[in-house]
Design a protein that fits this description.
By secondary structure, the chain is α/β, with parallel strands linked by helices. The protein has one domain: Rossmann fold (3-Layer(aba) Sandwich). The protein is 48% helix and 11% strand. The protein has a 4-stranded parallel beta sheet, with helices on both faces. α6 packs across α7. The longest helix is centred in the C-terminal third of the chain and has 13 residues. It is globular.
Length: 131
């Protein structure tokens, strides 16, 4: 299975895995699954932390995002770039969810056929598998 982490799921997986459900933790740790973090996760963290809407590790507050990307890789997660195809898919998504970062992650999952790891119930309104 190919999993795409919503931003909060990525942060939880890296810092507080007990916030994930047991099923989510098992799927992320299953070596037969490929787990993706999105470039959109990095953008969302950077923007929301700079606006004071998200508290992040001190290293990120000092703009050490390259180290964060390394931590993602060291965790065994693959990085997923945001492509033109992903961007084009956003237009076809109904506005069940207003958060642009979540809409971009949903568009990526739809385009790639990935399952999204999230705790956001609003994602269930979209044609995408959730965990």
């Amino acid at each position: 299975m190919k999993l795409l982490l919503d931003t909060h799921a990525l942060l939880w997986a890296l810092t507080t895995p007990d916030h994930l459900t047991e099923r989510q933790r098992e799927a992320i740790q299953d070596p037969t699954n490929t787990v993706f973090a999105s470039a959109i996760n990095i953008v969302e963290i950077a923007i929301k932390s700079s606006l004071g809407k998200l508290r992040v590790a001190a290293s990120l507050e000092r703009n050490r995002y390259a180290e964060f990307v390394t931590a993602i890789s060291d965790s065994g997660f693959e990085m997923l770039s945001f492509t033109g195809t992903h961007a084009a898919n956003i237009r076809s998504l109904p506005f069940h969810h207003r958060d642009p970062f979540d809409r971009m992650i949903i568009a990526q999952a739809v385009a790639e056929g990935y399952t999204i790891v999230t705790a956001d119930a609003q994602f269930s309104a979209y044609p995408v598998e959730l965990l």
